[in-house]
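User: quick one, fold this
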Amino acid sequence: MRVRGLMAATVVVLLVSSGCDAAPADGGSAAPSRGVVSRSPVALPSDPAQMLAEAKARLGTESARFAKNSDNELTDYTGVVDALSKDWEVTARNWAVRRIGDDIYVRASGTILLSLPDEHFPADGWLHCRLPADVDTLATVYSDRFPWNMTNGAVSAKDVVKVGERSFTGMVDVVRQKDVGSPAHTEQVSLGFTLDDQGRFATIGDDFSFSDFGVPVTIVPPAPETVTEAADPVGVLLGVPFV
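Assistant:
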């Protein structure tokens, strides 16, 4: 029997970053091409508040690739997001998640199955469910703003200091909780981030990144014959490692 991997509903501010190309999980989703438009570099505002405001305003205006770089293969992933529809696909070694509107498709294999509830994952197939109304309060990745909300720490950073041509550090408030049920407390920690030559967020921390802004992206549902309805949607959604 698989161990139920339902995560506790404890909200902790995520500080993340990374970068690499996204690969389609299967033939059901069209792979983005490399048709990125080249533009002349823009000068960054000298005022940190204005610089962050302009970078924030650019979030979600262009399709892009994104990635989380981790030594743990369960949490190392690449993805693509369509800025117009807000649909996205995330692909890891042993799992993939595809969001189209409020429909979620999950594919899993190997050791990741141990962290999911007792669901039947068809061979080379997908589980499907609709997003529960409150799931975004439990997991950052199911917010309508994912993956752009991964920049929240940088957007709200205080005392921003320039440490390179387009590299910066700032102080952010992080809510920490030692154990479920224990009192939460807020700490100030340093967060590094970089902007690209158009003033858009490129990396956040040392393990999350955006790249290839403007790349064409099309996310489509898996073939119907490969899809099974999930009996426990919340268990499946919160059992995927990237939450």
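User: anything notable?
Assistant: Residues 48-239 form a domain with the outer membrane lipoprotein receptor (LolB), chain A fold (CATH 2.50.20).
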